[in-house]
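Table 4 source record.
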Amino acid sequence: MLLSLPNVITCLNLFSGCVGIVFAFNGDLKSAGYAILLAAFFDFFDGLAARALKINSALGKELDSLADVVSFGFLPSVIIFQLIGTSTGSEQQASWLPYTAFILTIFSALRLAKFNIDTRQSDSFIGLPVPSSALVVLSIPYLIEQPGFIGDIFQSTAGLLVLIGVLSLLMISELPLIALKFKSLDIQKNAYQYTLIILSIIFFALFKFAAIGLIIVTYILLSVLKLSTKR
């Protein structure tokens, strides 16, 4: 039974994504965002449990990817689908335009498939991880509430379409990024990961969920800094 624990946690990730999709289609986008957070929590701990129990399962790897497509690919796409449908100028937009949100699901699936066969990504990520992309989408309903330029950008159809394109390209890019899965708790070996966690806590305390976009930018910058120090 203990050997099945990582797969059980992965299934909780998938269940969270399914519940979040229902929230999103019902227009409750913030609750859908909470479901993404819960799925990310389970996604982190299934790998941690597998390493703690020294389980290396091909089934677990495939199940994890399938769960991630739902929780971090399809669910964020539904959120953006709803946002485009209510964005500035939505009355004049083509009826098919909201469906472009599902481009994000396609690129999420491509990113996960690429990760599964790419032996270079054992100690670091190449391209933006799918959960990180989903967390950016989670923050959009909160960014829309911000006064001024930031809120206007993410309330517009054009801004949302640009976001879809940027996230999609980042996911399949060759940009090396820090792996967020800890193989040990050693501070020196995980200095960049711990720095990201500390900064993320500070940003979140200051800006709440609206800070997630800033956290992802920090993640990318720390990754570039780590890469530059290796050269």
